[in-house]
Design goal:
- This protein starts with 25 loop residues before the first helix and ends with a strand.
- The chain is 30% helix and 26% strand.
- The chain has five helices and seven strands, in the order H-E-H-E-H-E-H-E-H-E-E-E.
- It is α/β, with parallel strands linked by helices.
- The chain is globular, with a radius of gyration of 15 Å.
Length: 174
């Protein structure tokens, strides 16, 4: 796993052997960030990374200049790994050990970018999307990016759906 762009471009991130996660592939991550690069300016933006896992996406946003990144995961090993990597690379990433769905249900803060990458067997894709939108967690001119499997379909009119190999992204802009 590596950071694609920004101040840490090319930096490899090694995962502990006991960390059971499925990081977004470099190819898929590069493709989705190319889309975002063409639409948004990253400097000083805020990010919520749900189901943060390895922290792969948080590191990418931080390397590109986002100012406040909050990584949420319910796995303590994932949170510890993100904290260690954040400290090592001197990144502006905060972590919370918490269930992502519960977090967005109770959250009152807004973010420029919300990235959700649940496990592919997750059954609440629609609920998490609807909760984020209902609770108005995305700032004006921000977006929600949901990484999902091929069986998940969002029927909303303003969703940009992309596929890279087996990875699917749905991008919802505000």
């Amino acid at each position: 796993m590596r950071i694609i762009s920004g101040i840490h471009k090319g930096r490899k991130i090694n995962l502990p052997k006991n960390l059971r996660v499925r990081p977004t592939t470099d190819r898929a991550k590069e493709a989705v960030f190319n889309i975002l690069d063409n639409r948004y300016y990253f400097k000083n933006k805020t990010v919520l990374d749900l189901f943060a896992g390895s922290g792969n996406i948080s590191y990418e946003f931080a390397s590109r200049g986002c100012k406040n990144i909050l990584s949420i995961d319910k796995n303590k090993l994932c949170i510890d790994h993100i904290k260690n990597t954040t400290q090592k690379l001197e990144l502006n990433i905060n972590t919370i050990l918490f269930d992502a769905f519960e977090y967005v249900t109770n959250c009152k803060e807004q973010f420029d970018f919300i990235y959700a990458d649940p496990p592919y067997n997750y059954i609440n894709y629609q609920n998490i999307k609807n909760t984020i939108l209902k609770n108005n967690l995305i700032k004006k001119n921000g977006c929600l990016i949901i990484e999902h499997d091929k069986n998940t379909v969002f029927d909303d009119k303003n969703i940009d759906h992309r596929k890279y190999g087996t990875v699917h992204f749905s991008i919802i802009s505000q």
